[in-house]
Amino acid sequence: VGISIYPDDAQSYEELVKAADTAMYQVKEAGKNGYQFYTQTMNDKVTQRMHIENYLRSAIAKDEFFVEYQPKVNIVTKSVYGMEALVRWNHATKGLIRPDEFIGISEETGQILLLGLWVAKQAMLDTKMLHDEGKRVIVSINVSSKQLGDASFVEEICAIADEIGLERGFVELEITETHIMKNVDKALLILNELHKRGFLLSIDDFGTGYSSLNYLKKLPTKTIKIDRSFVLDIDTNSDDRSIVAAIIAMANSLGKDVIAEGSETRAHIEALRSLGCSKVQGYYFSKPLKIEMFKEFVTNFKCDAT
Ligand code: G
Ligand code: G
Ligand code: MN
Question: Which of 3, 76, 101, 244 is the most exposed place for a label (fewest CB within 10 A)?
């Protein structure tokens, strides 16, 4: 239910209903089964959304996107073995727009299909260049559920890798746990296909969704990425430590790798090390970097996925 009040929220019947509708939309977004009173900020949000949706239409053509890379570090071998590609949008007048503000919208409108392929191509081109310089890292690319549901995705992603000449075994696709578990049978089909084609797979934001352990065993995903919400207080909160320890133990027994995201401090790193987690990603080592800066960053490390 969305509620608007005359005369505060609107003066005409049409406007009043529109306001109630906006409020109802918010309830639906928040998971349905509830009610909301209309507020002006809701309207601002809707307008902002519409703007972004419109801007998105031309953003690829205008070359407004770029990709940054966050190093993935093995703290035992002290090497950078991979990097996560994270898209950025530099809008002509609005400046830098964060992915959180446009990925969701682009998924709803279907624009993520084109954007996702653009990111994949750019990321693979940059990775190929690194490989040619002897830095054989894995590149991790975020893939949304909308992309996975697209019938031509597998062929397209294969074609991009082949065209660039990048070995598929150096391309990891990150899919969030929530997306996988939403329709796990369907996800299993497509993930198996991607696995068969030689790509690496990783479950992103692990621990925030509701994983069926039965399915986890069957998924062809090599890596489990522990959500940063569990890492944030890992050095001070014993519950978080226990959760991370349990995820690591489970991953070990299923023969899967783990990486901890959001590792920001020395204390995080030491806590993770003591729990036996050797792969980390986070601000402690580096924030996401432009490819030139990434290259500079890895000069201080061994740089190899093997
Ligand atoms: O750096 P950060 O603010 O970049 O990213 C915010 C969120 O946006 C992350 O959860 C990340 O998974 C998502 N994201 C970043 N780049 C991409 C992308 O290319 N595709 C998809 N689907 N999600 C992305
Ligand atoms: O969910 P995903 O794995 O795609 O997460 C990538 C997001 O995490 C990006 O927004 C990236 O900027 C952010 N990120 C990376 N390292 C850290 C960190 O150490 N702390 C916090 N708070 N965010 C981080
Ligand atoms: Mn990710």
Answer: 76
Can you tell me which atom of ligand 2 is nearest the CA of 261? Answer: 16
Query: Is 98 exposed, middle or buried, given 0-12, 13-18 or 19+ CB atoms closer than 10 A?
Result: exposed
- 3-state SS class at 254: helix
DSSP letters for 22-69: HHHHHHHHTTSS--EE--HHHHHHHHHHHHHHHHHHHHTTTT-EEEEE
Integer Rg of the chain from CA: 21
Q: What's the one-letter identity of residue 49? A: R
Ligand at shortest distance from the CA of 88: 1
d(CA 143, CA 6): 45
Does the beta carbon of 204 lie inside 6 Å of ligand 2? yes
Q: Please state whether beta strands 79-91 and 95-97 pair in parallel, antiparallel, or not at all (unpaired).
A: antiparallel
CA of 189 to the centre of ligand 2 (A): 28
Taking the C-alpha atoms of residue 213 and residue 216, their distance in angstroms, rounded to an integer, is 5
From the CA of 204, give the closest atom in ligand 1. Answer: 12
Q: Tens of pLDDT along 138-191? A: 999 999 999 999 999 999 999 999 999 999 999 999 999 999 998 889 999 999
Give 3-state DSSP helix, strand, coil % of the chain, rounded to 5: 50, 20, 30
Instruction: Return the half-sphere exposure (C-beta side, CA atoms, 13 A cut-off) of residue 182.
Output: 11
Reported as a single tens digit per residue, the pLDDT across 26-49 is 898 888 889 999 998 888 888 888
- Rounded CA-CA distance 46/96 in Å is 20
DSSP string, 127-189: HHHHHHTT-B-EEEEE--HHHHT-TTHHHHHHHHHHHHT--GGGEEEEEEHHHHHHTHHHHHH
